[in-house]
Structure prediction request, 201 residues.
Amino acid sequence: MKQVTRALCGAAGAVLSVALLAGCFVGDAGAKGEAGDIQDPYKVGKHLDVLLNSATSAVKPSLKWRDGATETQPLNHKVTNKPDGTVVVSKTRYMRTKVARSKVDALANSVQDHCKGKGYKITSVNPKEPSFVALTSDGYSLRFSVGAPGNVYLDAAGPPARDPGTSGEDTLPGLEGDTFPKDAKGQPDIMPDLEDTYWSH
Prediction:
């Protein structure tokens, strides 16, 4: 699903590249973890589902979505710049429900209100896009973003986790996500495809 992230990068103005997931997004999430507190990557991946489910279930009327794969990105040692045996685990949830531009702010506010209610720290707010990052006290982050033309998604990332050692594969086995339709170029089609009487108009 890395190709999905790269496709989003272009659609969203180079906001969600792999570098972001391994860099500034991870700076928001993974770098906040306690030193030496390296978690199991599967445990982190499952907690990403909890964060995403909690955020999307708070939105009323409800939305439909597809989940991308739960992926890992190696982290490098600050001095040697070589992999240090840890990874950032991340996952993207793509909204299938078409959200009209006039309703995007309402959706962003709904998710942000939920995050504030949970006690998350809100940062990196861009009201024009709109987008924001919510940081949890235990080193996780949730990013709300809107791409072009109109695809809405949530990215979740966790604190540093143990490298699962999956022979270079960046998708955690067993956590491959949903099956996406293909676009004209044979790539996963992440665009919303379902109408809703409230959100789509």
